[in-house]
Amino acid sequence: MSANNLEIPNFIYVNKFAISCFKYTEAEMLSLHSYLSAAPDAQEERNKILKQVQENNIAFDYSGIRLTKFKKPFTINDGIIWKIFKNGNHGEVIGQAALFWLKDEPKPDWWKILK
Known about the structure:
Elements: E1 2-4, E2 11-13, H1 16-22, H2 26-29, H3 43-56, E3 58-67, E4 73-85, E5 93-101, H4 109-114
Antiparallel strand pairs: 1-2, 1-5, 3-4, 4-5
């Protein structure tokens, strides 16, 4: 999933996995401000990880509580959040992307390369 770089970002891409986790339709997710994906009491932790992304372009090992459309909490694990650049690593930042799992489970081989 990814969000744009507006003052209050909203999602600009979601895959079927994200849709199944958050229980929104694709259209609903693409109109949702990204901060609304986290529980109110998880906003501080979310802001900390986003600050790491701001400073380092990427952050690893993020876990946190998220909310479905129906306000039911669920936990994301082993998340990676990174900046999206318009023209490679030297271009304008146009958003952030995220990858996560729902439970602590064995990861694919390519995951080990990222870490």
